[in-house]
Amino acid sequence: MTTDPINDEILRIKRELAAQFGNDLEKIVADIKSRERDTITLPARIYDPQSVASTTRQPKPVSSDVSAPTVP
What we know:
mainly alpha
């Protein structure tokens, strides 16, 4: 069976954390919770087609002149 280096690293870290807290799951969970950060949720954006239409660029009209440009 081959070993996976990612799994090996995760298991090593898991064992180090367990040893650091004396294999006490409550202490491990308390440490994890103390590291958590608050996050914010932004309100949903409301789609307003009129504001989008006013900010988009309109394509330039195509010239009806189909002659090739002349070289000076």
